[in-house]
Amino acid sequence: MRIGELARRAGTTTRALRFYESQGLLTAPRAANGYREYGEEHVRLVGEILTLQAVGLSLDDTRPFVGCLRAGHETGDSCADSIEVYERKLAEVDALLTQLGEVRSGLVAKLASALARRPLPCVVPGSAPPPNEQESR
Amino acid sequence: MRIGELARRAGTTTRALRFYESQGLLTAPRAANGYREYGEEHVRLVGEILTLQAVGLSLDDTRPFVGCLRAGHETGDSCADSIEVYERKLAEVDALLTQLGEVRSGLVAKLASALARRPLPCVVPGSAPPPNEQESR
DNA sequence: CTAAGGATTGACGTCAGCGTCAAGGCAACC
DNA sequence: GGTTGCCTTGACGCTGACGTCAATCCTTAG
User: Fold this and answer.
1) How do residues B38-79 score in pLDDT, each as one tens digit?
2) Which InterPro entries match (chains A, B) (predicted)?
3) CB B89 within 8 A of CB B57
4) Do B129 and A24 contact (CB within 8 A), yes or no?
5) CA dist., res. B90 & res. B83, Å (int)
6) Do A55 and B23 make contact, defined as CB atoms within 8 angstroms?
7) Cβ-nearest to B78 among A107, A111, A122
8) CA A95, C1' C13: Å apart?
9) Which of A21, A85, A93, B50 has its CA 20 to 30 A from that of B129?
10) What whole-number distance in Å separates Cα of residue B85 and Cα of residue B78?
């Protein structure tokens, strides 16, 4: 199958697939006319990548999984490197949760003290961003 | 005081201060030689911006607070708009916490099933990114 | 006089993961 | 042979909050 069909079946875009290839995550033989030719295994591979991204892994984090599948394993997480990524990412997520909890506390505290000071706050016209004197975005 | 001192006292960099100015958050009169001239109120203002960023607000979110201080209020969160930002951000943080919790569950599940399948996973040499055929980064 | 240490503006780089556009080639159908 | 649809590569855009570099100016101390 060609790149468009793979994209549809895997639930992504051709642009993403070409990007994965540029990052070395996906390789495809070319037909005589230069078109990429994919098989069923690629559908699974892309599916694995997307699933991993859904649980918070970066594209770079999926490398070990891809390598594991290429090495002939049934699943991408049959290899030590992949497990390691799981554990590292879990630690990162936990750290993020903690940090975000602190952020939440800070926000709640600020909100509470603001409300305590002024049961009925005032209103100020508004402050739109100026015509942006260079430093273009 | 000039921009370097303000940066030191507020705990940031001159680049950040100039950026804030380009975004309309900070305004300073100029001396005869073109140097920006700041006063004590700017130290407080920049401090407010940094504190707000620390609790998760984007620069854009700090606009109402800056406007509130400019309007002569003691604190940046004495105005209705600021309170609104607090509440909106709190909702965002809660949503993020929920989502991150789900990500965590997904990770834990994947880790568990991978470990269940293979108490002693294999090892694969490694898959370094290729020489990057265009799509440069 | 010169060197050092700030200050100024402008412009490009960074990180992730693609989106979007452009110009053109290939294949099939009417 | 013209249209449609899919494919190719290349290149720039986007988000946020600045970092970094370059070229030049101002002030002060030695």
Assistant:
1) 999 999 999 999 999 998 899 999 999 999 999 999 899 999
2) DNA-bd_dom_put_sf (IPR009061), MerR-type_HTH_dom (IPR000551), MerR_fam (IPR047057)
3) yes
4) yes
5) 11
6) no
7) A122
8) 29
9) A93
10) 12
- B82's enclosing H/E stretch is helix B80-117
Describe the crossing of helices B63-70 and B80-117 by its angle, rounded to 10 degrees.
160
Q: Which nucleotide is nearest to B53 (CA to C1')?
A: D17
Q: What is the pTM of this model?
A: 0.82
Q: Taking 80 as the threshold, does the pLDDT of residue B131 lie above it?
A: no
Residue A132: its pLDDT value, please? 40
CB contact under 8 A, B100 and A97: yes
Rounded to whole angstroms, the distance from the CA of residue B33 to the C1' of nucleotide C8 is 10
Contact A53, A62 (CB under 8 A): yes
Rounded to whole angstroms, how far apart are CA atoms B55 and B76? 14
Terminal alpha carbon distance of chain A: 41
Domains of chain A: 3-117 (1.10.1660.10)
The enclosing H or E element of A109 equals helix A80-117
The answer to whether A109 and B137 are in contact (CB under 8 A) is no
